[in-house]
Amino acid sequence: MQSEILKDGLLQAKKAELKNYMELAYTAIRDIYEDTSLPEDVAQRRVAEAFHRMEYGSDGYFFVYDYEGLSIVHPRLEHLVGQDLWNFRDEDGKFLIQRLVQRAQEGGGYTEYRWDKPSGGESVLKLGYSIGLDEWGWMVGTGLYLDDIEQVVSQMEHHMVENARKTILLMAFFTVSCLLVIAVIGLAVNISEARVANRKLVKMAQKTFSFLEKERRRISRELHDGINQLLVSARFKLERIDDALGRGDHVDTSSSLAATDRILETAIQDLRRLAYDLRPSVLDDLGLVAALESLCSDLVERRRLQIHFESNIDSRQCQPVLATALYRITQESLHNIEKHADGARQVKVKLVRRRSWVYLEIADDGEGFAWRAGQGHEQGGTGLGLRNIQDRVDLLGGRLSIEAAPGKGVRIRLKVPFQRIAGKTSGERVDGRVYTRTFGGRPSAGAGGAALPAGGAAGR
Predict the structure, then answer these.
(1) What pLDDT, in 10s, does the model give residues 21-69?
(2) Is 273 helix (H, G, I), strand (E, B) or coil?
(3) What are the boundaries of each domain within the chain?
(4) Taking the CB of residue 171, how many other CB atoms lie within 10 A of it?
(5) Which EC number(s) are documented for this chain (predicted)?
(6) In 92-235, beta strands by DSSP E
(7) Residue 454: is its pLDDT beyond 50?
(8) 291-323 burial by CB neighbour count: b if 16+ within 10 A, else e?
């Protein structure tokens, strides 16, 4: 049971990592892809050259095929470029390129297959993720090898059947394995800046690396101060069990085993929480609106607030990179409302799409703070949250404005380009109406008459 949980957790981490790499890569080429002033052949050549240079880790790269199976980019097997591989079968006899293209045309998805690992020289199981550039009829893909997951699981199963003394070695191996997995999650896409001519792309890449570095530091602190300490404590308990078994003291052994079990259960819960913080499952499973709903519901349970939410966006049609950014901005804002907005009773979040832009307005009636455009406010402790929001808006190519004054609360307005999933015609709800919902008070019917989630607060 525990091994299945571990395997599933590692697989989910791999999927989140793959999607993150693809989002970063798409951000890097988006300006070229969407620049209608460039001739199509020039834009395609520049995008192909960019994907050819992108690498991460020792075995990470990006490949490109058109929707007819013609190889366009493959940095590790360049002899394949120009070949028609539409009917190529993998070792299991499945049409690999056709499956990858199908996932891309469906709006992006995962595909498992066997492929030769460049650093190992042998065929291993690989998890691929592909998206489509529909305007050109291109499929862009990347993948991670899954052999390390099988190695971790087999090692754990082997050591679980050994005695208490060898369990200490298992804990050491498990700690190292967890550190390696978290380190892989935190790796940044290594895009050579020497050939990047567009200064805007360089700036965006630097901001992305800054975000990842902050995440590495946070994860490092979590592991060192939390999980690592729990595992060290478990090791000492197991050493005590070993000594007690040597003395024949079964009473001490029983109590120590119970204590060790509680410590390991706490460590597992902390690891699950850390994985959830890296990528909330509700965002992937239920979409942006439901994720914001969850944030607001949690806040009104902790604080005496009324939160009013308004939206006309269909979560199913938002690109993951846009949904993630809007979720993180709202999460940061709600956190700062809870922490800093003393006296706040009303919070408003308005998330709507108008043509090619998404607008997010977040306001509260708290104590506010002194604010001037281009400068931090006078009260300490919350400027980092505003900088994080500004960085996320910049990465999406949007604009941010902040209105705040002592005693008058805070209002944040931002607009970012709408990024729809390939094949979808609109990001607005199919009935065109605005839906509202109020948390922490009596629900009020929106223009559409149905209830929807609330979210947001002034990020400070």
Answers:
(1) 999 999 999 999 999 999 999 999 999 999 999 998 888 899 999 999 9
(2) helix
(3) 2-145, 162-182+199-278, 282-439
(4) 19
(5) 2.7.13.3
(6) 109-116, 123-133, 138-145
(7) no
(8) bbbbbbeebbeebebbbbbbbbbbbebbbbbbb
Give me the phi and psi of 161, to 5 degrees please. Answer: -90, -5
Question: How do strand 346-354 and strand 306-311 relate by DSSP bridges?
Answer: parallel
Contact 43, 135 (CB under 8 A): no
Rounded Cα distance between 388 and 370, Å, is: 19
Q: What is the CATH number of domain 2-145?
A: 3.30.450.20
Distance between CA atoms of residues 205 and 211, nearest Å: 10
What does the block give as tokens for 187?
A: 């790796």
Question: CB under 8 Å to 419, separation ≥6 — which residues?
Answer: 318, 319, 321, 322
Q: What's the CA gap between 231 and 238, in Å, rounded?
A: 10
Quote the pTM value. 0.44
Q: Which two tokens stand for residue 341?
A: 């907005």
| Greatest Cα-to-Cα distance within the chain, rounded to the nearest angstrom | 82
Residue 345's alpha-carbon distances to 294, 353, 370, in angstroms, are 19, 27, 20
Structural tokens at position 113: 């297959």
Name which residue leads in pLDDT, 433 or 35: 35
Burial class (CB within 10 angstroms; exposed 0-12, middle 13-18, buried 19+) of 284: middle
Distances (CA, A) of 359 to 28, 118, 296, 393: 23, 44, 19, 11
Instruction: Give residue for tokens 């101060």.
Output: 225
Backbone angles phi, psi at 422, to 5 degrees: -55, 135
- As a whole number of angstroms, the distance between CA 374 and CA 318 comes to 30
CA-CA distance, 395 to 201, in Å (whole number)?
9
CATH number 3.30.565.10 given to 282-439: yes
Q: What is the DSSP letter of 301?
A: H
Question: Phi/psi at 399 (nearest 5 deg)?
Answer: -130, 145
> How is residue 86 written in tokens?
């539409």
Separation of alpha carbons 341 and 356, rounded Å: 33
Could you give the CA distance from residue 19 to residue 108 in angstroms, rounded to a whole number? 9
The pair of three-digit structure tokens given for residue 289, joined into one six-digit string: 């609106």
Gyration radius of the chain over CA positions: 25
**DSSP 3-state percent helix, strand, coil across the chain (nearest 5):** 50, 20, 30
Exposed, middle or buried: residue 436 (CB in 10 Å: 0-12, 13-18, 19+)?
A: buried
Q: Give residue 64's pLDDT.
A: 96
Structure tokens at 177: 């394995």
Strand 109-116 and strand 123-133: pairing?
antiparallel
pLDDT (tens digit, 9 = 90+) per residue, 387-401? Answer: 888 888 888 889 999
List, in sequence order, the alpha helices (H) in 376-422.
383-395
